[in-house]
Specification:
51% helix; binds magnesium ion; Spore Coat Polysaccharide Biosynthesis Protein SpsA, Chain A; binds uridine-5'-diphosphate; glycosyltransferase activity
């Protein structure tokens, strides 16, 4: 049998006092089973990241770490937001583990596919995406907006995994890859596919949040979606140019139409020139804005300073290093 894996599960928590006891209980049970099966080793950990909670979240985490050696805690100085808390947790643990799984605190994502994720890791996958089978438990509104969001992202040319949120396993080297992304505006489900390496999906049914309220109210959700699109795609800028071009074509048709009207004498004084100039100037303005947008788009890509590539393997290089 293969060597058991040193697994870290990273759980961002914001005002999660209502769920932490149950979540840790279920996760510890699962850890026990996975240890018995020889899947994970004794150094494996569940790491709760307190994202500046205002309730008893941190004192509960503190208690849990004292009662169970498998549990550790990280406390952020203030609320940094889900994506930042998750990234911070992953970056903190990446050098201690073979692979890390990120999961929400509320058990909406079925923890029982964790062994499958780990098995896929053992089989050589660096990234294992948790993908939701069905979303019956979400409200109709959340379901439709979510589908709309994934479709829109794909339409904008952003490579994201359909129905995957932030429930995923990443190997240490995939985390090292992720660490090379220096951007401040995090949208992890868009960034992880950019890292590369071999990836696969595991499927699960999404449960209801068993206690507490969603920490993603509509306003936060919309701003997250907007951030996702504008951090990954310059398509909206391109759309301005395209729209400008369409308006220019209309201006041309309008010019012919106005000319014909003028020739057959159907127009009042000034009508034709007014119509043509309004359309023409409108088209030219949109095209110009789009053109300026192209340059801003280039700037936007440059200021991100994303890694151009991530190296997967060296051949012969390792020996050189060992000789040193
Ligand atoms: N969360 C966080 N910081 C925040 C908001 C949320 O760490 O500012 C955590 C939250 O505790 C949970 C996860 O992010 O573990 C997802 O939030 P939630 O379950 O409320 O979102 P939903 O499932 O409703 O989209
Ligand atoms: Mg949730």
């Amino acid at each position: 049998m293969s060597k058991s894996v040193n697994l870290y599960v990273v759980v961002p928590c914001y005002n999660e006092e209502a769920v932490l006891h149950e979540t840790s209980k279920q996760m510890l049970e699962l850890f026990g089973e996975m240890k018995n099966d020889g899947l994970i080793n004794d150094n494996s950990r569940i790491v709760f990241v307190d994202d500046g909670s205002k309730d008893k979240t941190w004192s509960i985490i503190d208690e849990l770490t004292k009662a169970h050696t498998e549990i550790s805690g990280i406390k952020l100085a203030k609320n940094a937001g889900h994506q930042n808390a998750l990234f911070g947790g992953l970056m903190t643990v990446k050098d201690d583990c073979d692979c890390a799984i990120s999961i929400d605190a509320d058990l909406q994502d079925d923890i029982h596919v964790i062994p499958d994720m780990v098995r896929n890791f053992i089989d050589g996958y660096d990234v294992v995406y948790g993908v939701r089978n069905k979303r019956d438990t979400d409200t109709f509104f959340k379901r439709t907006t979510a589908v709309g969001f994934y479709k829109l992202m794909q339409f904008m040319g952003v490579n994201i995994v359909f129905n995957h949120a932030d429930y995923r396993l990443m190997s240490k080297r995939a985390l090292d890859g992720l660490a090379q992304f220096p951007e401040r505006n995090l949208f992890l489900r868009g960034m992880v596919p950019l890292v590369g390496y071999r990836s696969t999906n595991v499927y699960y049914d999404r449960n209801e949040r068993f206690a507490g309220e969603s920490k993603y109210p509509l306003k936060k959700m919309l701003s997250f979606a907007f951030d996702g699109i504008t951090s990954f795609s310059i398509s909206p800028i391109r759309m301005i140019s395209a729209f400008g071009a369409i308006v220019c074509v209309f201006a041309f048709i309008m010019a012919i139409y106005a000319l014909v009207q003028k020739i057959i004498g159907h127009t009042g004084a000034g009508w034709a020139s007014l119509m043509v100039s309004i359309w023409f100037i409108g088209g030219v303005q949109l095209l110009s804005v789009g053109l300026i947008g192209e340059y801003i788009g280039k700037l936007y890509k440059e200021v991100k300073r994303r890694p151009r590539y991530i190296i997967e393997a060296y051949v012969n290089e390792k020996e050189k290093e060992d000789d040193k």
